[in-house]
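hiii so my PI (J.) wants the whole complex modelled not just the main chain, which honestly fair. so below is everything: two entries, each one labled with what it is. i double checked the lines twice but i was tired so who knows lol
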Amino acid sequence: MKKELIELSVNGRGHELAFEPSKLLLDVLRQDMQLTGSKRGCDDSSCGACTVLVDGASILSCTMLAASCEGRKITTIEGVSEHGSLAAIQKAYGDWGGAQCGFCTPGFIMTVKHLLSVTPDPSEAEIRNALSGNLCRCTGYNQMYQAIKAAIDAEQKGTAAAK
Amino acid sequence: MVDAAGKTTGAGKYTDDLSLPGMLVGRILHSPYPHARIKKIDTSRAEKLDGVVAVITGKDAPNPYGILPVGHDEYALALDKVRYVGDNVACVAAVDEATADKALELIDVEYALLPAYFDPEEAMKAESDLIHDNKPHNLEKDYHHVFGDPDKGFAESDQIAEARFLANEVTHAAMEPHSTLSSFEIDSHTGQPGRLTIWSSTQVPYYLQHKLSLVLEMPMAQIRVIKPLVGGGFGGKSEVIPLEIIAAVAARAARAPVKITYTREEVFWAHRGRPRTIIDLRTGITNDGRITAVKARVVQDGGAYCSYGVVTILYSGALLGALYDIPNIQYDGYRVLTNKPVCGAMRGHGTVNVRFAFESQLDELAAKIKVDPAEVRRRNLLKPPCITVNGLRVQSYGLPECIDQVVKRSGWNERKGKLARGRGLGIACSHYVSGAANSIIRSDMPHSTVNIKIDRDGGVVVYTGASEIGQGSDTMTAQIAAETLGCSLARIKIIAADTDLTPIDIGSYSSRVTFMAGNATLRAAEAVRKQIASAAARRMGCDEEDLVFRDDLIYRKDFAGGGARATQSKSTSKSSDSQQSESSVSGKVEGQILRGSFQQKRKDEGPKDSMSFEEAVVAAIDFHGALTGTGSYAPPAEARGGKHKGGGVGPSPAYSYSAQVAEVSVDEGTGEVTVHKVWAAHDCGRALNPVSVEGQIIGSVWMGMGQALTEEMIWKDGMLMNPGLLEYRSPSAAESPEIEPIIVESIDPEGPFGAKECSEGSLAATIPAIANAIENAVGIRLHESPFTPERVLAALRAKRSQKKINLTEGIDPTAPTRLREHGGSLWFKGKGPARHPKDPARRESAVPTGGAD
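here's the output for the full assembly
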């Protein structure tokens, strides 16, 4: 298949890229843009390690054609850090043992970003439900709940301080 | 965690995230047949495809290898025979994945099919068409151990239980699929490919370097193995996986860097997981609850190659000891070859399935003698320090406290037997080694060596071969170095697992890193500290022993300001983040760590009461010339086990202990088991990093729960029926219970700061704790894991109809047939329906032949 020139908006910047229209978003991110934070953990969209946000919604980049994202805003794990420092959720995942080997972590953080954008103060059941689309083999998920709660607390304190 | 930011920002690099200029993609052709002779391989059509750079086959690297010196039975690519569906036949290196995949289809292979063996007990009867010619009856290895006098022990017992238990095969399914990037440098003198650099997702860089040297016929010094971040191992990366060798051979042939990354399906074929295990167990007990004897016959379905098999079957027997005081043990272990993907080491190596059987049977015996299950375990405790009947040395022993803790926290005494219908509590214990006392390569070399270097800027660089695979190895190393040197964690930089830079460490397996690499780090840091102390003592006019290293300060014990300053600096470092404390550190020396200025200062000030860490470091460098230290660790001779054959596996310098209570409910209509909560107490010696320790305990229990309830590799005629994460049914957040980790600290006399293992030992107790809880809930004793709804329903049906389950069938014969097809042996014996003419399991013609299509 012939390559085409396609413009993608990734992490707030426009990129003009030449790739086959059949290419998956995950492969374009990892191979053409060197954004290797999104991971490939399976062949059948079962693990969630490749989760990114497209127009704010969490989607699996391994099952989406990159060309179909033209004109939409893509956010990857590389776009989560704020002004070069850790976002609250990233800090909390590191501090509370939410990340062990870290391979699934970018996917989880994107899923949590989406969860918190639609449900700012989720219940434990809502958190479990949201995370159930991502797999982790290290943590047993328990410490992630602590991390997410800590991140919400930190965000709320930050917002309160700003006021 | 010192390395958390790289993982949470996506900046950290795993092997598949790396690329090199001119890099090619490698793809492997796998065998479609479980057992066949290769008559011919024709790669010419593939080679002609545009974009294909090299096609390699077995003859390109004919040297055998294997992780154990006694098991060199694997080849990079099959030489004359394939032995399982998924065995490696050829590899294509091409410009991209699509081209490589297309080329695989153009390789023509002619196979002559051989009868295949899928069930270990069938395989043991085989006289001909052996999987390996030098292994009669397809028996990889068998061991027969007798300790004490089992016959006498059984004669002294009041009650005996005897049963067959079956634990089905599980795999690691680490989130990161294996990946290897391999690159040769051109040698300046010869003009030919010279030094090799390999980046690989491995737990054992040193073993990989060793095996590459065997297969490629290159000296180890010419091979550099670098371990980038590893996305989980659990034992699946603790040996040399075929793609690691194949990538190197392909890079040599293609004269360009080659990266191979497995697909998830290939990861399942690469496997090396926990074998399906048949355990015939007999235990005797007295009416007052003392175990008098244990007899175990264990058969493991090891798959097509040796891998860690000899070690696995030995662990299964050896770790019958060292948990309880058992005076008489008889063990017969059989590691059997079958035409299935290879089993190897997996979290809780060798102990898990036998522990499931033993702890289940112990509960049955407790019921027979009417003693509470927690109490019966308390009555069989060891009295350390001691050496068990099978030669294992136990020093620290936190099991009694673990049992007390879980009994208390779970409300065991108050709640057991009083829960609602279908809900129950179960208890079980387990233990594990803190590193194998004997390396797999027999030698006297230390198991871990660590170097430390400190420069004039006060930055501490620790060079360790220990492999961070997510368990917190780098954090542990940094903490031990910082604690010993009394400096802040921000000063420590870890350089790990790069065979060119870091001294030999045999890797991250058998839960050895904290104990062994930790001890080596401690010794290296002490060596450096001694040099700093001697220089500082001269400056302060006191003895080295009178110096205290703490909070980036070195002061005399009697220095009144020391404690106060230390407390002060502690409180500031608490309230500010590490960046600020770092800037205040450099502020102290005003950014000038120049020899002249300090010497001038010293002359001005005369003897001092305290020195900052930088000042002391500079003084030491001035005094000694260079500030480096080395520490290494080898297990003491008395911890290396008995002299009997196979006595080298099982001994460890220290054992971790775990006790768990699980609360479950069983839906008697659907057979579904729900775990509500697990209380897990783990004796880790000392918790160097409590968040990490809790994470490891929770992770182990969770993985054990997966094996107990859902995870199972389902085979049909040597084909894996569920090679995907969803089909394999790794538990998601929705079905994962709350796990309450309870840290118990027994302070081991030889561990670094008293620390022991914490990452594997908890897994084994979870499966029997859940089995015992199911028994408590609905009165059925399950003998086969995982406890799927089908198996639970079958047992409930049998209980209602008062039928005795035929345990040798594994399950109630009225249950759906899928459950009996674990190894396809029924098909093989011709009992199944008619098969497709090309089906390799078909027996009509003795040696059917088939083409590549």
